[in-house]
Specification:
Elements: E1 5-8, E2 18-22, H1 23-29, E3 46-51, E4 67-68, H2 93-103, H3 114-157, H4 159-167, H5 172-182, H6 184-205, H7 217-243, H8 247-253
Parallel strand pairs: 2-3
Antiparallel strand pairs: 1-3, 2-4
Helix pairs in contact: 3-7, 4-8, 5-7
Amino acid sequence: MGIPLLHGRYLQRGDKNAVVLSESLARKRWPSEDPIGKQWKDSKDIVVGVVGNTRAMELNNTDATEIYYPPTDENIPGMAVLVKTAGAPTELGPAIQAITGSLDAKLFPKITPLKEGFHKNVAQAEQLTAIIGMLGSVAIFLAVVGLLGLVSYAVAQRTKEIAIRLALGAKRGEIFSTVLRRFAIPVAIGFVAGVGITAGLSQILRRMLYGISGLDPISYISAMAVLSLVLLAAGLMPIRRALRIDIARILHAE
């Protein structure tokens, strides 16, 4: 299975009263001691090895622990056998059924490719992610519409000011940056509040995340970059429209 051996040894044929612990379980049971050779709780089992964490039983729990025992006759009826293939796993179904049938005619194994089994385990998380992604897209669309309306209104209120600045020789880039700076403080407050709330909620979402941290800096930076681009795009259209105003007409009307 490719589970790395970190300390001690793997289980071997003929082992009795021997166990192998995952790193998380060994650290939890003996935080600052070497677990090799120690008795496992009140049983006769002795720890012979420590291996990497796999989350085999609890895929969505980063603190999951595993313990491995040698198989016994009592375990066999409930065991799952993993078959490693050189070709396509789906093509070996008939051969596996023929082998099991030759061993015991009463055996009717259910054959599931490991990849298919994995997707079944994460199907619920994938569906939830798709829903959250769709809601996020709707939220971004509403943010664009809201910011577009807000910036358009703010620019319309400052039409006379923009005309005067242009008449006095102000550059269009300066006017553009001046209008955007007006929204800089609310956006900065929104970023700080959003990051703080998300960091708090990340502990709740932590069990739904695979392979990344709930405080993943890349995700935070990416989200802020997207929102900044949304603000820039929302402000670009009304400001460009305002910069094409007829200065003489505006000042004459005022």
